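Retro notes
What went well: the complex prediction finally ran end to end.
Inputs used:
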Amino acid sequence: MRIAVALALIVLGSVVFHLLSPWWWTPIASNWSYIDDTILITFWITGVVFAAVVLFMAYCVFRFRHREGSRAAYQPESTRLEWWLSIGTGVGVAAMLAPGLFVWHQFVTVPKDATTVEVVGQQWQWSYRLPGADGRLGASDVAYVSPDNPLGLDPKDPHGQDDVIIQGDQLHLQLGKPVKILLRSLDVVHDFYVPEFRAKMDMIPGSVTYYWFTPTRAGTFEALCAELCGVGHSHMRGSVVVELESDHQTWLLLQKTFAQLRAPVRADAGN
Amino acid sequence: MTDETSNVVQSLSVAEVADVELYHPKSWITKYVFSQDAKIIAIQYSITALSIGLVALVMSWLMRLQLGFPGLLSFIDADRYYQIMTMHGMIMVIYLLTALFLGGFGNYLIPLMLGARDMVFPYVNMLSFWVYLLAVLVLVASFFVPGGPTGAGWTLYPPQAILATTPGKEWGIIVMLVSLMLFIIGFTMGGLNYVVTVLQGRTRGMTLLRMPLTVWGIFTATVLALLAFPALFVGCVMMLLDRVIGTSFFMPAIVSMGEQLPYKGGSPILFQHLFWFFGHPEVYIVALPAFGIISDLISTHARKNIFGYRMMVWALVAIGALSFVVWAHHMYVSGMHPAFGFFFATTTLIIAIPTAIKVYNWVLTLWRGDIHLTVPMLFALAFIVTFVNGGLTGLFLGNVVVDVPLSDTMFVVAHFHMVMGIAPIFAIFGAIYHWYPKVTGRLLSDTLGKLHFWVTFLGAYAIFFPLHYIGLMGVPRRYYEMGEMAFVPPSTVTLNAFITIVALIVGAAQLMFVFNLVWSLRRGRPAGGNPWGATTLEWQTPQTPPGHGNWGKTLPVVYRWAYDYSVPGAAQDFLPQNQPPVPRTA
C-alpha cells in the first residue's frame, strides 16, 4: 500500500524536479540547437514512458494487493497485446532515432567554407594553432617536439612557417563563421569540450580527429577536458573567446607565428 | 500449460538415479573449504563478492565526501581520488556483480532449479572459486604495493593507464591486469560448467522451455561472458606487454612531460574496441541474470504466472545476441570513423525493443495478480523503477548525436549507476531475501528488511536522479574537484552536499543488511521447505538447506512449466513443477 503511494510520488517528484530545478543545460552558443531539440524529444518520449510504466505499477500494486481470499488470474500470454506493445515501442524508438541520425549526418559533414583551427592537448594544458596567410596548416609530428617547437611542427614545411601558435592563452573564434576544430594530442587521450558549443570529441595521440560548429553567441566560454587524462585531469582548463570579425583580425595580428617564435633560437644558434 | 504434455508424462516413472558419480567429501576441509558441492561454492563466491563489495561501498563514501565537501578529508588528494574511483568501479562491476550473479546465484540455483545433483564438473567448479579468490587477493594486494593501486579509471584507457602521470603506474596497473586475467581464467572454468550443466544436466521432463527464467538469464549471461571476456583478456595481455617489456600495441609515438618515449605505431583506440567488445556485453552479463531473477520474484510473490514466458525467453536471447553489435556506442566521441555512429546508434536503439518487452511483461504480470508485498517483491518493484529509469536514459546516450554533449559528463555516471549499479543490486537484494531461507533454513528479519528497503530505494533514487541534471549542465565525470566552473550555478554545491549525505545514509543501511544476514542465521524465523509457496524445484528439496546431492534417492521429474500459479480449479494457488497432472478421466 505504502509502496503504491511511493511509486506515484516518485513519478510526481521526478516531473516536478525536472520542471523546477535550477540545473539545466547552459545557454547554447553554437549552431547545434538541433542537438538540444533531439534531447527534448527524447525527454518527452522517455518521460511519458517512465510515468506510464511506474504509475501502472502503482495502480496494480494498489488494486491487486493481497487480501484475504483473493486469487490471481491465470493468463499465460497474449500474443496480440505483446505484438502491439512491440510495435508501439518500435515507433517510439524510430521517433528518437530518425532525428538523431539526421542531426548526426550534419554533425559529421563539415561545410566547405569552414575555417580550420587546431587544438593540441598535452598534460595538462591546451595549445592552439591557426593557419597563417596561406590558409593552410603545416605538417606536424610528435617526433619534432622540442622546447622551441612545443607543438611538433615540421620545420621544413613552408606551410607551417606562418602558422599562428597560441600557448597558455585563450583561443579566439570568429562569430558566425563555421570552424572545423582539428584535434591532436601529444601524450594521452584528451577531449576538448565547451559545454555551450554542445560538441566534443576525443583527441587521440597518433591521429587527428575533428568536429565542427558555428559560434553563434559572442562571449568567453570555459573549455574543459572531458576524457580522463591522468592526475591533473580536472585542472585541464582553457577558454574560448567568440568575437566579431574585426576584433578577431585585430587579435590575430598580435599573435606570433611559428617562424617568429623560432627566430630568437636561430639568432642564438648563429652567435 | 500442462495439458499439451499430459499424455506423455503418464508413461514416465519416477527414476531412481544413483549418485555414484558425485564426489563424497571425506573430511571437514573437503566438505566446507575445498568443497566440490556447488551450494558451498555458491556461498563461498557470495561471501567473497559481498566482502569485496563492502570495500567498494566504503570507497564510494570517500568519493562522495570529496565531491560533496571538497578538501574535508585531507588524505584524499587527486592521486588517491582516482585510485579510489578506479577500484570502486572495477570491484563493483567485475568482482562483485559478475561474480555474485554467475558464481553465487549461478552455482546455487542452476543445479537445484534444474533438478540436478550438482554441476557437471564439480572439480573444475571448485577450482573456479579458488582462482576467483586469488584474483580478489591480487586485487587487494594492489593497495599495498609501492605507489598503490592504479588510478587509470575502470576503463584503463591507454596511453594514460601505463604512463607516469597516472597514479599506480609502478605496480598498480600490473597487479590490476594480472588480477583481471586471473578473474577471467576462474570465470571461464565456472562458466563452462554452468553452460554444460544447463544443456546436459537437466532432470527428466525439464525441457529448455520449462526452465525458470532465472536459469535462462544466468545461462544466456554465461554464454555472453564466455564470448566477451576473451576480448578483455587479450587487451590485458597486450597492455601488460606494453607496460612491462615496452611493446607498442596500444602506444603511439608520445611526448610525455617533455620527454620522447620509445613507443611507436600502436593504436590507443584498438584497446577501446577490445575493452568495449567485452564491456558492453558485460552490462548484460550483469543485467540478464537480474532480469531472470526479477521475473521469478514477481511471479512468485504476485502468485501469478509470468506474462508471456516464451516472449521473455526470446527477448533474453535477442538482447544477448544484439549486445555484441552495440559496443562502439561507448565510443561515439572517441574519434573513430563517424560513419560507425549510424550503425551503432541503430543497433543500440533496436535493443530497446526486446528490453521494453521484458518491462511490459513484468508489469503485466502484476495486473490481476494477488500481490504479496514481501521484501523480495518490494525490491523487485524497485528494480523495475530504477531499471526503467536507467534504461530510458540509455536512449539518450545510445542516440549518437544526443550522446555528444552528454558523453563523459555526470549524466553518464547517473545513467550507468541507475541501470547497472542500483537496479542489479536491487535484484541481488530481492534474490537474497527470497533464497536466504533455502540456503539457511531461516527467514531474514522482515522488519530490518523493510527498513533496509525503504532507505535504500528512496535514497538511491535521490542520489542518482538529480545527478543527471548536473551532467546535463556539462559537469564532466572523473573530476577530482569541480573547482570554479563559470557555467555551474552555486546551488550545485548544495546539491552535491545533499547527494553525499544521502549516500552516507544509504551506505549505512547496507551495514544493517549485513547485520540482518548474520543475525538471522541463528535467530531468524524457521522457514520450512517452501515459505513463499513457490513452484520451482529448489523449493521442493527433501531437506532444507538441501543436502549433499540435493535430492535424496530419486531425482525429481518435471511435469509442468515453472509458473503454474493460481491455476483455475487447483486446490492450492501454486503447483510445483514436479507435481504430476491429475489423470484425465476419459
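What we learned: Chain B has a mean pLDDT of 93.
What to try next: split runs per interface for comparison.
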